[in-house]
Design a protein that fits this description.
Radius of gyration: 31 Å
Number of domains: 2
Largest sheet: 2 strands, antiparallel
Strand content: under 5%
Number of strands: 2
Order of helices and strands: HEEHHHHHHHHH
Strand order of the largest sheet: 1-2
Distance between the termini: 101 Å
Shape: globular
Helix content: over 70%
């Protein structure tokens, strides 16, 4: 009997000590970012609540994540390229400049019986609106998004310019633009706006998507089909600059660089969307050919 009383008394003392620890934990001040965790201790009927600190959300990380996701949406791309598209179409009427990809697609529409001049830009708008509808995302863009996209296009254009300079060191053959009059400079810059929009429409939005889809239908994995589609369409993109009466004379430096640029634009289109790819393409052409 004495032995049992001793065990009971020691057990009561242990329960009192644990109870005091639990009450102290409950009375402790809990930060706003604290998270409750239940600590299970042997020989206790109920677990002890313990608080752990959770990392505070970084507002800059959330802002960057939101920009990265929203800027690649078709709606953001459409709003971003609309001023460039209007400027180019007006320049076609005033200065008579026309990009090669634009001319090819208009000839195709003519063969199909659609000769209206503004049909092609209307098709661009409809394609991007339909694409955005399929994403099921909201029909709005955040304040300041377009300025961020413009800054990103400028930085990416500078990166591609650095690639051009690096290739000129490895492979001699870089050609500097000649001196142009003011009218020629304006017309050339407007033509480069069309190159950014219509070449990305033809070679990335249409051709790259169709080739990747066809390779997947043939049994390739998504990753392998995308890589092969990027390489094939980049070769076609480079070769297209040497076709027709207005094409450049074939030389290896330009062909290799345009192939690398096609890969660069394809990666941008896949990772950053149509708007960034088209804006960066136009910005690079103006940076190299006009400025």
């Amino acid at each position: 009997m004495k032995f049992k009383r001793g065990v009971t008394a020691s057990r009561r003392k242990g329960d009192k000590a644990v109870g005091s620890e639990r009450s102290a934990l409950r009375k402790a001040t809990v930060p706003a970012t604290a998270k409750h965790v239940l600590l299970h201790v042997p020989n206790l009927k109920s677990p002890i609540p313990v608080t752990t600190e959770t990392p505070r959300p970084n507002p800059f990380a959330r802002l960057a994540e939101g920009y990265w996701a929203e800027s690649r949406l078709p709606l953001a791309g459409l709003v971003f390229i609309t001023p460039l598209l209007i400027t180019y179409e007006m320049g076609v009427q005033v200065f008579g400049v026309q990009n090669g990809a634009d001319a090819w697609m208009r000839k195709l529409l003519d063969l199909m019986g659609f000769s209206q001049h503004f049909l092609l830009p209307i098709l661009i708008v409809c394609i991007l609106l339909g694409w955005h509808y399929l994403t099921r995302r909201p029909w709005r863009i955040s304040r300041g998004l377009l300025w961020g996209m413009a800054g990103e296009c400028i930085l990416l254009a500078l990166c591609l310019r650095m690639l051009y300079q690096l290739q000129s060191v490895v492979l001699a053959g870089a050609v500097e633009p000649g001196v142009m009059s003011v009218g020629e400079t304006i017309g050339t810059a407007i033509g480069y706006l069309g190159a950014g929009i219509y070449e990305e429409l033809l070679f990335r939005l249409i051709l790259l998507s169709v080739v990747a889809w066809g390779l997947r239908r043939a049994g390739m994995t998504p990753r392998k089909s995308t890589i092969i589609a990027v390489l094939l369409t980049s070769l076609v993109f480079s070769a297209a600059h040497y076709v027709g009466s207005h094409g450049d004379s074939l030389e290896w430096f330009g062909f290799v660089f345009r192939f690398l640029a096609g890969v660069f634009f394809s990666i941008l289109f896949i990772c950053r969307g149509f708007g960034i790819a088209a804006g960066m393409h136009a910005g690079y052409d103006i940076l190299v050919g006009v400025l």
